[in-house]
Structure formats: C-alpha cells, structure tokens
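We now fix the convention by which a protein and its fold are recorded. These numbers are not coordinates but entries in a learned vocabulary of local backbone shapes. A record is reproduced here so that you can trace the correspondence yourselves:
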Amino acid sequence: MSELYCPSRSPCDWEELLQVPEDTSLPRFMLDSYHPLKPQQGTPCLVEAHTGRKISINELRSRTAALASALYTQYSIGEGDVVMICSPNHVDYPIIVWAVHSLGGIVTLSNPQYTKHELLQQARLTRATLLILHSSVLDAISSDIAHLGVPSSRIISLGKRDRLWNYTIEGLIERAEHRKNPVDHSVSVGGDRVALLALSSGTTGAPKAVKLSHRGLIVNILQMAAHIKRSGNKGFSPGDVALQTLPFFHVAGFVLGLHLCLFLRMSVVVTEQYDFIRMLEDIVRFNVTTLVIVPPQAISLCKHPATNYFALNSLKKIFIGAAPVSAELQRSVATAIPNAQVGQLYGLTEASCTLTMTHGSYSSPGSVGQLLPGTEAQVVKLDGTLAGFGERGELYIKTPSVALGYLDNIEATNETFRNDNWIRTGDEVLITKNNEIFVFDRVKDVLKVRGFQVTPAELEGHLLEHSDVLDAAVIGIPHSYNGQVPFAFIVLRETAEQLINGEEHDYDGAVVLKTDILKYVSDRTAPYKRISGLEFVKSIPKTSSGKVLRRTLRKSWEKSKAKL
C-alpha cells in the first residue's frame, strides 16, 4: 500500500460537494447558506435538558445577531480579536461562538475544570482579550480573577446573573434586542481565516494552539455529512435527536456533536454536567436516537446495572471515539443496546475533527472505519518505508480540512504538518485490504485520559516545581475506566531522599511525601490530569541526548505490578 484514498474516490462528486466559497464563515454556513448536503426539511433546534426549553434555528439566528451587536458596541470586538470561552455545555455556546465569528473574531474554548494556572496559560498562549466564563467557573476562581491577565471589565458571565459582574451574556442580548435601529456589524470573513484556536499537544510536548480555519471546519462537517449519506448510518436524519455528552470545548463535541447535528437538521439535547444515570433518563425523556460517547461512557453502558432499568430502544446509532476501543468493548455495547448500530470514529484536532467513521452495518468490531471523502492516508514504518496492508506503522493523513498550523510555533508546525500538507498523527495503526483502519496506540507519549489529551511534559513541569523533587518522568498506565492514567517516577533531592531512605527508614514519611507531591500537582491541574500514583527511583533512564526512555519505565512498572 503506497497511498490510500477515500473509498469510491474516482470521479465521485465529493470534490464538488466540498467546495466552500471564500467568504463563507462558519455562522453564515450554519445559519444562512444553502448546500446540497443540507436537508431542506426538518427543524433543527437546541434543547436545554434541565428545563426542556427549545431554541429554534430562527431564535439562534436572532440571538447571534443581537450578541454580535453587543460585543461590537460594548467591547469593540472585531477582526482578529480572540475571545476565550470557559464553560460547560450550554445552549448559548454556539450563539457566543457565532457572534464572535460574525465580527471577524476568533474563539478559543477552555475546559471549565481548569485551574487559574491553566486558564492563565491558555489566555496568554492565545492572546485572548475578552473572557466569557460560566458562572460556575467564576464562583470557583472568584478570589483569583485578578491573576487571569485580563481586566475584570472584560470578563462576561454566562449563566446566572451576578451583581459582581456588570454584564452577562443574557443581559447583553436583551439590551441589543431592545435597541432601536440596530446596526449590523457583521463582516464577510471566512475561508482560510482563523476561526478557532483549539488546544492540542500535537504528537508531543506542551499544549499548543491549533489554528483551525472557517473553511477547514466547514469542510469537515461536509465530509462527515457525505460519509453518513452514503454509508447507511442511522440516527443522522431530520427529526433525529442527539444527546450531547461530549463537551463543546473539545473539538469533537464542537464540530461533530454540535455543528454536524444542527447542519443535518437534527435536535441537540444539551446537558451542562455529565451524569450517567441522568444520561439514561434523558435518552428516555427526549427519545434520543443518537449518541457520541467516549470509552468510559461505553464501559458504563455495558457494566452499570442501571442500564437494564431503562428502555433505551429509541437509540439508533452509538459512535465511540476520542480513544481506541477494543472489539470486545464494541461488541459488549452492541449487546447492551441491541437496537442501535454501534461504531467508532477517529480524528485529530489538527484535522479540524474527524478523519474516519465506520459504516452503518458492515464495519469490523474494533475498527475506526474508513476514510472520509477527500481524505488520503499513508502508513509509515519505523524505518521510514511505507507499510503494506495489514502492517503496522504511523498514520499520516492528508485532508482538505487540515489546520493552518500551530500559533507562534514554527518548529512544532513543521514537525506535525509535513510537505504537501501531510499530517503526522503520532498514532500506530494498520489498514486492511478492505480499507478499514485499526488504531492501536500513541507512537509518541501523549496520554488519552477519558478522551482528553494529557502531556507528560506538562505534569513533569509541575513535579519539578516541588521543592523535594530533583527529576521526574511521567508515563501512561492502563486503566479499565479511563483508558490511561498518568503515573510518575520521582528522583528526590538529597535531603528528602535521606529522610525516607536513611538509616532510620521512615515509611510513614515516604507516604506523607508522596501524598504531598500528588496534592501539589492536583492543585494545579484539572481532575483528569491527576497523577494516579508515583514511585521513588534513583535515576530517570534517558538517552544520550536527554530524552526520557519511557518504554524502559513502562517495563519497570509492569514488572513491579507482576510482583504484586
């Protein structure tokens, strides 16, 4: 296999279908533009799960225009300005994004579990000048607002009204809607202009801001829509209902869970906080037909006893993504929900979201499916030669939805985005003769914890800040629920090492120190990044150039586990 194209690539009509006018922005595409892949019937809407309130496409359009007017008038948001949104899923999420885009601005989406340190890091990295924070985030970091690097006058609350904040999203929309003779400040900015700065680690290193364009995001929506239309996937037709369990700040939730479903004239049920029992209740309550979930949620569907107490026969399609899923787990989900097609999908932030999807009925369990229209693949072996069918190697992808690179990071851009727009994925895969792709593991060291990326380098940085730590390395170890969790190897400073390993070996002291180090890191990171355990060692194995030999550390961990 020298190069694999999407199935039925020959003069198929995908080239014409994926054409996007240069001046088409994401909101214009979603709210106003015609496209042959967009169904002309059906009433897409958002549904607020906890109230049952429905927001029609017309209301989305009017609220977007009102908020855009307010952001321009009150904050002078315009072309190239970066607005950071930090919130759990919310029905106003797309309205905020589209309002900023309508003015030519750029959004960056942040995890509401982030600490003040992580929020500040993202704000600085992306050069955000306006922050829109959910009220729950404001409550959690209220004492640290001054340290976010943005004046409090440029922080807007999303959610409940709060006397401490001059402006809320709802208040801005209401003021704009009541303004006489409103002026349309929207601009025709689309094409290859940056729409979203999405955080990603790439294939290695600290978090980076991926520059996703309007065109790239739109093309990926069209690629998925074209694949679904031809592949027999149920659950993506007008009138179908998707329950959004993926977070909107994650590119999969943002592009697939939100934009694709609305584009296909579906209804999207929005829940602010994920809870498994509540998810089952909402499936029944709203007659949900479509779920896109991550492996931990798939495990719960199979193993949680509550699954048997709910009638989930409305489900037509379950897609599992964000991390590799075994054939066994996929079969177990299909057994637990027999009425639904169960498949997988695979993607990258650097490709705007999705690269592969399974077909409706004939994909092999464990496969992430076939390439989306317009996508090409190569599998490269360790020696640099191209792999054949059935041979493992690193996956390289070429797609018209490719990102524009990493913000202010030429070295990382050149490492991931190769000549002729080939993306180095960092994933070990094989491709079968019937063009199905199987993903096995990360070639590099980025961990996938519950579908979220965790970089060892970031955690190692926190560990090295601890006063008793001399050196540190982090690996991923298997976990039945999370997929992977971080585990640390620590070289202590001499004073601390003598304290716990001296003549008066202090076992309790070692336990206390481990607890203190773990707490030090957990206080500075989101919950999914927390280190599961650590081991004190004499040295960290490294190459002559200073790179950590993580494979050696993994073998060490496996040996110690085998002795238990």
User: Anything to note?
Assistant: The first helix runs from residue 14 to 17. The domain at 4-27+30-41+194-442 is CATH 3.40.50.12780 (Rossmann fold). The mean pLDDT is 88.
